[in-house]
């Protein structure tokens, strides 16, 4: 398998990259990053890792990164750190459109995208903690939430052409040993999921989904 990851310099992106290299030891991992200096040294030095630097609007480099790829994982998304100063428009959702166009141009169907419960799902029910988090984030960073919602919308339009999965993660707990971490996938208010997720456990679950393919065309919450 040859996997392409976007957002590999972020905390989740790094963990997903490391988990992939652990599980698929002889396979190739392509990391598309803006600045390779932000990658941890173990990823830079791994012989199975190919690093391609580029912007998300650089179609030539996006196409280069997509060559021979079997699946794409995106850990892109607004963090809300800019709060009310987050740019208007939907820059990350627009980047997803370019990524998906490039995927289709190279015949790549499998997409796993990470986002938050700000993206709603018809299977969701009322959950006070998650609704509180959603409304709080929307108040602090309304433009970021608009971008997140747009990400879910543009991905779901590709159901006929891409085998996508949207994994929604809320609050992150401290990193833990994945062997002692049970990850639950479900929907808001289903009595199984909650507002907290382990980064390490989520990374393991996401890499397992590459082979399991249990959540195609679905957008569960991981907790």
From TrEMBL:
MF GO annotations: oxidoreductase activity, acting on the CH-NH group of donors, NAD or NADP as acceptor
Coiled-coil residue spans: none
Domain spans labelled NAD(P)-binding: 7-211
InterPro entries with a match to the protein in the record: NAD(P)-bd_dom, NAD(P)-bd_dom_sf, Polyketide_Oxido-like
Entry superkingdom: Eukaryota
Gene3D superfamilies for this protein: NAD(P)-binding Rossmann-like Domain (3.40.50.720)
Family: Belongs to the avfA family.
Protein name: NAD(P)-binding domain-containing protein
């Amino acid at each position: 398998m040859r996997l392409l990851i976007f957002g590999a310099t972020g905390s989740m992106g790094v963990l997903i990259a490391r988990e992939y290299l652990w599980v698929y030891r002889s396979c190739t991992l392509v990391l598309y990053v803006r600045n390779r200096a932000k990658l941890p040294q173990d990823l830079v030095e791994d012989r199975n890792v190919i690093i391609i630097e580029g912007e998300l609007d650089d179609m030539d480099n996006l196409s280069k990164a997509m060559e021979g790829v079997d699946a794409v994982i995106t850990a892109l998304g607004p963090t809300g750190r800019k709060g009310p100063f987050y740019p208007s428009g939907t820059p990350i959702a627009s980047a997803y459109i370019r990524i998906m166009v490039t995927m289709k141009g190279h015949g790549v169907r499998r997409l796993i995208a990470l986002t938050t419960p700000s993206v709603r799902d018809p299977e969701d029910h009322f959950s006070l903690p998650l609704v509180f988090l959603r409304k709080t984030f929307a108040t602090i960073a309304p433009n970021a939430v608009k971008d997140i919602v747009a990400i879910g919308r543009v991905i779901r339009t590709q159901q006929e052409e891409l085998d996508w999965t949207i994994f929604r993660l809320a609050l992150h707990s401290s990193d833990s040993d994945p062997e002692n971490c049970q990850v639950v996938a479900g929907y808001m208010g289903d009595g199984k999921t909650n507002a907290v997720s382990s980064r390490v456990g989520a990374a393991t679950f996401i890499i397992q989904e590459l082979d399991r393919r249990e959540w195609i065309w679905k957008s569960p919450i991981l907790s």
